[in-house]
């Protein structure tokens, strides 16, 4: 039961929200009769909907709309004749006269601008001062064309590696795909692929992500101001949308690289009515292992593969169906054992237009992350498997009242199944089967938000999300003595019986004030609740980490974040500058008792401690997005700590991924139509770590004495990556396909960045202890051939 003060505050917050909501409605009721212009904006060459394309009205300054995730827009205007201007990055701006005397449908196909495509830019629209005029702050949009120009580890274009080069985002370690946003942990990022959650986005133990750039259409990261329709994680939302497929003609693209090869095919199902895309990728280190004469190497396995599939079909003028899926797996092993892990997701979506103002999307979602580990040694042969499975249903609505008012509302429900581990012994093994306790949970939410343009200068968006979470049976809850370990009682629960439930309100608010044509001030606040927790002893996101639900002993994590920013453009939108500051309060943060282990622990609650945390910082960005030379410079100053009773004497301590300073420089130079060059440089303060500061002898054995929790720092991290691309466009070669060669150098000046530091006795003097630095990479060259026809 929540306390009465909490219930009272929730009622007051709910009352305040609806009073504000109802106050805004009458403001549009006295307006003259208006007519609606709605439709879709698509890519002329493929028929795909364009996300975030801007539809403006030249005669009405400041009046416009952005297309949603499916390319749909709606504008309600007074009767009259207007010049409609539609623009999107990399496409020729479309201008059309519209005589609006009755509600109209306007479906627009934009033509690709080959000149614009050669420029690497960051924003998703080519509208003048759009970053200043839009409501969005604490967000980062990435174009796939931009990603492919950046230097890449082993030639693998990686969405998450690019995200790690932006302000407010920290890497989990050298080469890894885990990331931290504004002081949040790896598990506090909600990663969605076509709305399906991805629980582990890593290939090859975290060195690459599972997202094949050839299959990706749009990438957007929210670090704050997260929309009310999303929840479940404290720190960020990484929303990735797959391509829909070419509904005009057959097309194929791919590449052959140092590490992997890729192939993507797309084609119409029925021309201009439906299409599909199929994209696959595989590494082939195992193929080269088989060529070795060394039997120990010959039988090794080390590879990953993934497959993306998506199809869509227009059922009628108001209905459209989408189905998409992802399946990926990593396999590693040899004669003595093997392990593998992977994700499987499936999404079925139905778009429906009730009318020209009300758009709805109904979605069925499946997500499964599993891993297995096995040993082939006869006396210790075993197979260990683990799963986390989600089944979800969502129903989202958008109501376009008029250009000043837009409403979103909907609900969702997810059933989680946790199977943390089953270890089955072989026929000659010396141990019996080990089965960790599984659990189930139900997570539901409903939301309502309103985007309101109060004046031509002042806009706001406010929303409220209510979430409910129930940990359900079958299950057993143990009661522990004061030592937190000794069992003194138990209670068993039947199938689907509620064991423990939680609920709460999550308000969201953002506002923008347009100072002048070139600058604006923005602010945001959001509360997030997280009911699932990742338990890990490592800094990277490893496949053997354990996800657990909130229960009797582990409450939901809660975070409140406020942010403010100033945005300014220079030289006719050539340069964009921004500075954002934020402060985040976090409750019910989880950490581990000293010397604890979560590996195969069936009493995980006995090693966990709970406390609070804070994170605050400032993020600066300057980017150039016009001309032959483009890119950005980002700097972040941040501080993140936790206070957990039972750790560090109850005093605040930095988290492992706390880095005070971070600098990222990303640049691309387009020399001509054939040659382009890219360079990335990154610098970050070393992460916090716990080190031994002494030792004592007892009965002939030596034991370390450790510093305060995370009381030391690893050496600073910095690295330079370089890339050069030679393009062979069909417009110059006269052939029927485009092709290119890309050469990249990862860690170009061979910096030996510390991945970890271990301690051991000095071989020459056992009375002394020495530190040994482990580093992962030196200089890594890679070459890739890409084609598109």
TrEMBL record:
Name of this chain's protein: TonB-dependent receptor
Stretches assigned to the TonB-dependent receptor plug domain: 142-232
One Gene Ontology MF term: siderophore uptake transmembrane transporter activity
Domain of life: Bacteria
Signal peptide: 1-31
Pfam families in the record: CarbopepD_reg_2, Plug
Lineage of producing organism: Bacteria, Pseudomonadati, Bacteroidota, Cytophagia, Cytophagales
Transmembrane segments: none
Subcellular location: Cell outer membrane
Keywords per UniProt: Cell outer membrane, Membrane, Receptor, Signal, Transmembrane, Transmembrane beta strand, Transport
Keyword rRNA-binding: no
GO cellular component: cell outer membrane
Example of a GO biological process term: siderophore transmembrane transport
The keyword Metal-binding belongs to this UniProt entry's keyword annotation: no
């Amino acid at each position: 039961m929540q306390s009465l003060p909490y219930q009272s505050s929730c009622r007051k917050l709910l009352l305040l929200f609806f009073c504000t909501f109802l106050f805004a409605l009458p403001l549009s009721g006295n307006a003259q009769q208006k007519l609606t212009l709605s439709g879709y904006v698509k890519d002329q060459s493929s028929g795909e909907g364009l996300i975030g394309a801007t539809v403006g009205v030249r005669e009405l300054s400041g009046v416009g709309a952005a297309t949603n995730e499916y390319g749909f827009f709606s504008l309600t205007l007074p009767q009259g004749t207007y010049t409609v201007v539609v623009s999107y990055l990399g496409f020729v701006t479309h201008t059309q006269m519209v005589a609006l005397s009755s509600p109209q449908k306007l479906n627009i196909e934009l033509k690709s601008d080959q000149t614009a495509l050669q420029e690497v830019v960051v924003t998703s629209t080519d509208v003048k001062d759009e970053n200043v005029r839009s409501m969005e702050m604490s967000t980062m949009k990435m174009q796939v064309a931009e990603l492919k120009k950046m230097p890449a580890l082993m030639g693998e274009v990686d969405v998450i590696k690019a995200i790690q080069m932006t302000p407010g985002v920290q890497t989990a370690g050298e080469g890894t795909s885990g990331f931290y946003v504004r002081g949040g942990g790896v598990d506090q990022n909600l990663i969605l692929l076509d709305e399906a959650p991805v629980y582990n986005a890593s290939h090859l133990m975290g060195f690459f992500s599972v997202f094949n750039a050839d299959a990706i259409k749009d990438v957007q990261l929210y670090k704050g101001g997260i929309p009310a329709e999303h929840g479940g994680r404290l720190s960020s939302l990484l929303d990735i949308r797959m391509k829909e497929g070419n509904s005009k003609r057959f097309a194929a693209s791919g590449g052959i690289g140092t590490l992997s090869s890729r192939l993507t095919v797309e084609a119409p199902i029925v021309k201009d009515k439906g299409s599909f895309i199929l994209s696959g990728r595989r590494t082939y280190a195992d193929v080269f292992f088989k060529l070795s004469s060394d039997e120990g190497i010959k039988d090794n396995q080390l590879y990953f593969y993934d497959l993306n599939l998506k199809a869509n079909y227009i059922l009628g003028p108001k209905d459209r169906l989408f189905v998409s899926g992802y399946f990926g797996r990593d396999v590693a092993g040899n004669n003595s054992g093997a392990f593998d892990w992977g994700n499987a997701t499936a999404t079925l979506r139905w778009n429906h237009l009730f009318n020209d103002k009300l758009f709805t999307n109904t979605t069925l979602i499946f997500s499964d992350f599993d891993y297995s580990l096995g040993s082939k040694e006869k006396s210790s042969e075993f197979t260990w498997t683990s799963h986390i499975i989600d089944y979800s249903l969502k129903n989202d609505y958008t109501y376009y009242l008029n250009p000043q008012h837009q409403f979103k509302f909907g609900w969702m429900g997810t059933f989680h199944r946790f199977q943390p581990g089953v270890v089955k012994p072989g026929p000659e093994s010396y141990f019996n089967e080990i089965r960790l306790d599984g659990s189930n949970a139900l997570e539901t939410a409903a939301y309502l938000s309103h985007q309101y343009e109060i004046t031509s200068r002042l806009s706001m968006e406010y929303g409220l999300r209510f979430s409910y979470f129930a940990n359900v049976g079958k299950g057993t809850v143990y009661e522990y003595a004061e030592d937190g370990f000794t069992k003194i009682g138990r209670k068993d629960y039947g199938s689907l019986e509620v064991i423990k439930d939680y609920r709460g309100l999550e308000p969201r608010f953002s506002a923008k004030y347009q100072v002048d044509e070139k600058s604006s001030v923005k602010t945001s606040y959001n509360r997030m609740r997280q009911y699932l927790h990742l338990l890990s002893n490592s800094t990277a996101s490893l496949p053997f980490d354990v996800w657990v639900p909130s229960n009797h002993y582990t409450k939901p994590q809660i975070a409140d974040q406020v942010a403010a920013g100033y945005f300014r453009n220079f030289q006719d939108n050539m340069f964009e500058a921004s500075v954002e500051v934020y402060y985040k309060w976090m409750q019910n943060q989880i950490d581990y008792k000293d010397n604890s282990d979560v590996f195969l622990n069936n009493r995980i609650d006995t090693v966990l401690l709970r406390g609070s945390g804070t994170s605050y910082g400032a993020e600066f960005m300057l980017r150039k997005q016009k001309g032959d030379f483009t890119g950005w410079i980002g700097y972040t100053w941040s501080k993140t700590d936790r206070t957990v009773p039972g750790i560090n004497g109850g005093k605040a301590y930095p988290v492992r991924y706390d880095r005070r300073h971070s600098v990222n420089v990303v640049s691309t130079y387009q020399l001509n139509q054939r040659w382009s060059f890219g360079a990335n440089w990154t610098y970050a303060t070393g992460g916090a770590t716990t080190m031994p500061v002494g030792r004592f002898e007892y009965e002939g054995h030596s034991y370390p004495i450790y510093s305060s929790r995370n009381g030391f720092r690893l050496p600073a991290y910095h690295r330079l990556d370089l890339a050069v691309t030679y393009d062979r466009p069909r417009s110059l070669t006269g052939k029927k396909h485009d092709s290119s060669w890309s050469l990249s150098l990862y860690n170009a000046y061979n910096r030996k960045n510390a991945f970890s530091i271990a301690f051991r006795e000095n071989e020459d003097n056992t009375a002394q202890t020495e530190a040994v630095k482990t580093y992962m990479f030196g200089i890594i060259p890679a070459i890739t051939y890409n084609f598109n026809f």
